[in-house]
Design brief:
The protein has ten helices and twelve strands. The chain is α/β, with parallel strands linked by helices and 330 residues long. The protein has a single domain, classed as P-loop containing nucleotide triphosphate hydrolases (Rossmann fold), CATH 3.40.50.300. The strands form two sheets. Strands 6-7-8-3-9-10-12-11 form an eight-stranded mixed sheet, with helices on both faces. The chain has a four-stranded antiparallel sheet with strand order 2-1-4-5. Helix 3 packs across helix 4. The longest helix has 18 residues. The model has no long low-confidence stretch (mean pLDDT 91).
């Protein structure tokens, strides 16, 4: 792993078993939430991960952090120049690595313990990792509240006393508490009002510049991803179908699924919007418990070929770090 690559994911799979029976349970299949994906994230950059609901974006983030132990594959993390395989460690060693990797959760209403004060919520990671206690911990919590734009004297308040945007700022402060180098942002703005979304995005960008953070930014909104990301990965039914830099993806999308996604993004220009051709995908997303043979997208692709029903396309670089899984460009 080169020094500029912080995280590398190789052949990552996350299957959830399907069982039948009440007394004796039989394993009858698997939900293939994440089905063999490869990508890397450079130090200090933001990789956007987009796709429809249920395609495996959040599961990918949790499997990388080992909140879910992957079914197969490898996750390599660059720890001060030394490559650590997260999938191969557990116990105390994994706990120590968690200081370097944190997560901002999607729902600010569900991710904060309603029985704990803000000071205890943000300060808990400091105690868990034996970073600071007592007065030092209290001062660090107040400092973190200031960093995310909240009043440092709010430490004794409870989550229900805050708005959704303020709660998400508390979630950001909790993630920052242990000075991580990598943060998974799991749709951190989808539960917030549109007016508040921009504030949280700006805060994340400011923190990235200030602390040199690296983000995996999971989202539905392609316009938000375009604003915050350096590179973008498009996911469909457990697989990454296209991955390239932001400008290339939005100006020259190659995969039919990416083209369909981008055609649905509204453009604030009535003349351009009127001339633009929408790509309407027919049918529903197949079940991750029974994905189609060959290419996962073959049941909905407007440019499907015979080979798409037989052979799974290889995810490869088609030039200039533009990765693609499509037989059209084989």
């Amino acid at each position: 792993m080169s020094d500029d690559i912080l995280l590398r994911v190789q052949g990552l799979k996350m299957y959830f078993p399907i069982t039948k029976g009440i007394i004796i349970q039989r394993h009858v299949g698997d939900i293939k939430a994440v089905d063999g994906i490869d990508f890397f994230i450079r130090r200090g950059e933001t990789l956007g991960l987009v796709g429809e609901s249920g395609c495996g974006k959040s599961t990918t983030g949790r499997a990388i952090l080992q909140l879910y132990r992957p079914t197969a594959g490898h996750v390599y993390f660059n720890d001060n120049g030394q490559e650590v395989e997260l999938t191969a460690i557990k116990g105390e060693r994994l706990r120590l690595m968690r200081r370097k990797m944190q997560m901002i959760f999607q729902d600010p209403y569900a991710s904060l313990n309603p029985r704990m004060t803000v000071g205890n919520i943000i300060g808990e990671p400091l105690e868990v990792h034996n970073i600071s206690r007592g007065r030092a911990r209290r001062e660090r919590v107040q400092e973190l509240l200031q960093v995310v734009g909240l009043n440092p004297y709010f430490v004794n308040r409870y989550p229900h006393e805050f708005s959704g945007g303020q709660r998400q700022r508390i979630g950001v402060a909790r993630a920052l508490a242990v000075n991580p180098s990598f943060i998974v942002c799991d749709e951190p703005i989808s539960a917030l009002d549109v007016s508040i979304q921009a504030q949280i995005i700006n805060l994340l960008e400011e923190l990235q510049a200030k602390f040199g953070l690296t983000y995996l930014f999971i989202a539905h909104d392609l316009s938000v991803v375009r604003h915050i990301s350096d590179r973008v990965a498009v996911m469909y039914l457990g697989k990454i179908v296209e991955l390239t830099n932001r400008a290339e993806l939005y100006e020259n999308p190659l995969h039919p699924y990416t083209q369909a996604l981008l055609s649905a993004v509204p453009i604030p220009d009535p003349v351009v919007e009127e001339k633009r051709q929408r790509i309407i995908l027919e049918g529903d997303v197949p079940s991750p418990a029974n994905p189609p043979k060959g290419c996962n997208f073959n049941t909905r692709c407007p440019r499907v070929m015979d080979i798409c029903h037989e052979i799974e396309p290889e995810f490869k670089d088609v030039g200039g770090e533009h990765f693609l899984a499509c037989h059209l460009y084989a």
